[in-house]
C-alpha cells in the first residue's frame, strides 16, 4: 500500500540525470545561512506581537519556544547527517514513517516555507515603507487590502530580488548572505548597547498581565504566555533550512550539525539580550503590535538617528531570512518533484548548478501571498506547518533509535529519548496554543492536501518509482 510505503535511505540522493546540485557550501556558509534565516522578522517585528499577547512575560515565551526548538534542532542535526538529502523533514518522514505521512509533512512544509517568506517580506516592507513614503511612494502600495491598502509592492519586489540572486548561484548567494548577517548582528548589538542602559525594572510590572495559558481576551485576541510562545516560535526556526542544504554541503557529516546547532545557540543569545533590552526600556503597551518595534523604542528614547540606522539596516539585512527560507522551500519542492509529487521537469538543475525553475515558481507563489495578507495571520499559520514538521522529525528520531540503533550516526543527539519527546510533546502543545482560527485553517489546508494526494500525488509518486 503506497500510504505506508517507505523510501530506501540509499535512494534519497539523486544519481545524475540533471538533478544533482553542486557541493559548494562549507560550515561557515551553513552557520551564516542558519543565523540569517533565524534572526529576522521574529525579533525585529514579531517581538511587538509577542509583547501584546504576553506583556513583559514575553521573555518566558521566548525561553519556552527556544527550549522546544533546541530539541527539534538536535533531532534535525542527527537525522540530517544520517540522511544528507535536500528534502529535510519530508525526506526523513518518507524513509521512517512512510509515503502518506511524508506527503502531509511535505504539504505542511509548503505552508511553512511559503508563508515564512511572505511574512518576512511583509516585515521588510514595514521597515522600508517609512523610508519610501516621504519620497512620494503611495502608501496604498505598501500594504495589503486588509490593512487599508491595495497591494504590498515592496514585499513583492524583495522576493523577486532574492529569487534572482538564488537562481544566479548558490555560492554567490551564500557569500552575500554572510556579509548581510554580519550587518544584522551589528545592528542588533547597537540596539542593545543603546537600549539596555535604559532598563527600568518597573517596566516589567505586572510581569504576567495576561496569565500563562492561552485564553481569549475581551478584544477577541487570544493572549497568555503560551499564546505568545506559539506565535514567536516563528522567531526561532530557520535552522531547519540548513538541512535542505545537505546535498550542497562539502562535508555534510560535520558541517550540517555545526550549522544547525551552532546557529540556534548564537541566535538564542542574541534574542535574550534584545528582548530584555526592549521590554526593559519601555512599557510594552507602547510598542506592542508595531511593524518596527525596535526602531520605535529608539525613537521614543530620543535616539532618532540610531533608530533610522536600525531601520535602514533592517531593510538591508532582513533579506537574509528571505534567502534562507526561499532557498529551503525551493529545495523541498525540488525533492518532491523528483519523487513525482510535482512535475519532474521542475527538478531540472540549471547550468549554474541551481534549481532555477522551481525557485522561480516558488517566488511567484509567495509573492502573491505577501502582496495581500497581513503579517500576524501569515506568521501564525506558518507556525502551524512548522510544528507539524518538527513533531514528525522528533518522531523519526525516536523510531530510528529503536528500529535501527546500529546505523551510522555522524552526529549523535545526547539524551535522544528526552530530546525526541521534547520535540514531539512541546510542538504539539504549542500547536494547541495557536489561535483557534489558525488551527482550523491548518486542518483545512491538510484536508486539501490529503485530497490532492489521493487524487493526484499517489498516482504520480507510484509512476515515478
UniProtKB/TrEMBL annotation:
<feature type="transmembrane region" description="Helical">
    <location>
        <begin position="225"/>
        <end position="246"/>
    </location>
</feature>
<dbReference type="Pfam" id="PF13520">
    <property type="entry name" value="AA_permease_2"/>
</dbReference>
<feature type="transmembrane region" description="Helical">
    <location>
        <begin position="381"/>
        <end position="400"/>
    </location>
</feature>
<feature type="transmembrane region" description="Helical">
    <location>
        <begin position="179"/>
        <end position="199"/>
    </location>
</feature>
<dbReference type="InterPro" id="IPR002293">
    <property type="entry name" value="AA/rel_permease1"/>
</dbReference>
<feature type="region of interest" description="Disordered">
    <location>
        <begin position="1"/>
        <end position="20"/>
    </location>
</feature>
<feature type="transmembrane region" description="Helical">
    <location>
        <begin position="30"/>
        <end position="51"/>
    </location>
</feature>
<feature type="transmembrane region" description="Helical">
    <location>
        <begin position="100"/>
        <end position="127"/>
    </location>
</feature>
<feature type="transmembrane region" description="Helical">
    <location>
        <begin position="57"/>
        <end position="79"/>
    </location>
</feature>
<keyword id="KW-0812">Transmembrane</keyword>
<dbReference type="GO" id="GO:0016020">
    <property type="term" value="C:membrane"/>
</dbReference>
<keyword id="KW-0813">Transport</keyword>
<feature type="transmembrane region" description="Helical">
    <location>
        <begin position="147"/>
        <end position="167"/>
    </location>
</feature>
<feature type="transmembrane region" description="Helical">
    <location>
        <begin position="358"/>
        <end position="375"/>
    </location>
</feature>
<feature type="transmembrane region" description="Helical">
    <location>
        <begin position="258"/>
        <end position="285"/>
    </location>
</feature>
<dbReference type="GO" id="GO:0015171">
    <property type="term" value="F:amino acid transmembrane transporter activity"/>
</dbReference>
<protein>
    <recommendedName>
        <fullName>Amino acid transporter</fullName>
    </recommendedName>
</protein>
<keyword id="KW-1133">Transmembrane helix</keyword>
<feature type="transmembrane region" description="Helical">
    <location>
        <begin position="438"/>
        <end position="456"/>
    </location>
</feature>
<feature type="transmembrane region" description="Helical">
    <location>
        <begin position="305"/>
        <end position="328"/>
    </location>
</feature>
<feature type="transmembrane region" description="Helical">
    <location>
        <begin position="412"/>
        <end position="432"/>
    </location>
</feature>
<keyword id="KW-0472">Membrane</keyword>
Amino acid at each position: 500500500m503506497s500510504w505506508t510505503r517507505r523510501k530506501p535511505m540509499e535512494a534519497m540522493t539523486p544519481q545524475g540525470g540533471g538533478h544533482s546540485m553542486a557541493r559548494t557550501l562549507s560550515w561557515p556558509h551553513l552557520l551564516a545561512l542558519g543565523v540569517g534565516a533565524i534572526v529576522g522578522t521574529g525579533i525585529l517585528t514579531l517581538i511587538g506581537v509577542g509583547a501584546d499577547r504576553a506583556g513583559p512575560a514575553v521573555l518566558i515565551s521566548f525561553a519556552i519556544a527556544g527550549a522546544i526548538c533546541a530539541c527539534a534542532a538536535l533531532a534535525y542535526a542527527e537525522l540530517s547527517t544520517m540522511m544528507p538529502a535536500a528534502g529535510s523533514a519530508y525526506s526523513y518522514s518518507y524513509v521512517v514513517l512512510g509515503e502518506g505521512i511524508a506527503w502531509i509533512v511535505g504539504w505542511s512544509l509548503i505552508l511553512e516555507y511559503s508563508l515564512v517568506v511572505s511574512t518576512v517580506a511583509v516585515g521588510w516592507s514595514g521597515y522600508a515603507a517609512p523610508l519610501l513614503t516621504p519620497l512620494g511612494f503611495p502608501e496604498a502600495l505598501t500594504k495589503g487590502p486588509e490593512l487599508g491598502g491595495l497591494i504590498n509592492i515592496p514585499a513583492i519586489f524583495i522576493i523577486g530580488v532574492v529569487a534572482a540572486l538564488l537562481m544566479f548561484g548558490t555560492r554567490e548567494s551564500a557569500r552575500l548572505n554572510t556579509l548581510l548577517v554580519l550587518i544584522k548582528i551589528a545592528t542588533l548589538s547597537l540596539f542593545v548597547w543603546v537600549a539596555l542602559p535604559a532598563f527600568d525594572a518597573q517596566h516589567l510590572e505586572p510581569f504576567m498581565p495576561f496569565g500563562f495559558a492561552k485564553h481569549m481576551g475581551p478584544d477577541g485576541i487570544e493572549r497568555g504566555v503560551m499564546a505568545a510562545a506559539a506565535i514567536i516560535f516563528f522567531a526561532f526556526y530557520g535552522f531547519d533550512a540548513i538541512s535542505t542544504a545537505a546535498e550542497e554541503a562539502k562535508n555534510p557529516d560535520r558541517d550540517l550539525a555545526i550549522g544547525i546547532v551552532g546557529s540556534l545557540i548564537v541566535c538564542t543569545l542574541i534574542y535574550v539580550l534584545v528582548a530584555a533590552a526592549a521590554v526593559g526600556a519601555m512599557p510594552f503597551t507602547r510598542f506592542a503590535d508595531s511593524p518596527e518595534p525596535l526602531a520605535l523604542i529608539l525613537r521614543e528614547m530620543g535616539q532618532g538617528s540610531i533608530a533610522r540606522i536600525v531601520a535602514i539596516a533592517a531593510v538591508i539585512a532582513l533579506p537574509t531570512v528571505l534567502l534562507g527560507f526561499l532557498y529551503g522551500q525551493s529545495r523541498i519542492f525540488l525533492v518532491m518533484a523528483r519523487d513525482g509529487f510535482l512535475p519532474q521537469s521542475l527538478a531540472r538543475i540549471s547550468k549554474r548548478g541551481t534549481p532555477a525553475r522551481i525557485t522561480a515558481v516558488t517566488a511567484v507563489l509567495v509573492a502573491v501571498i505577501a502582496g495581500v495578507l497581513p503579517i500576524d495571520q501569515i506568521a501564525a499559520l506558518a507556525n502551524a506547518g512548522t510544528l507539524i514538521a518538527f513533531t514528525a522529525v522528533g518522531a523519526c528520531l525516536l523510531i530510528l533509535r529503536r528500529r535501527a540503533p546500529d546505523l551510522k550516526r555522524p552526529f549523535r543527539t545526547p539524551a535522544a529519548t528526552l530530546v525526541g519527546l521534547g520535540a514531539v510533546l512541546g510542538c504539539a502543545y504549542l500547536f494547541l496554543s495557536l489561535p483557534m482560527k489558525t488551527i482550523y485553517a491548518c486542518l483545512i489546508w491538510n484536508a486539501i492536501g490529503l485530497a490532492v494526494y489521493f487524487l493526484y500525488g499517489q498516482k504520480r509518486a507510484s509512476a515515478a518509482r
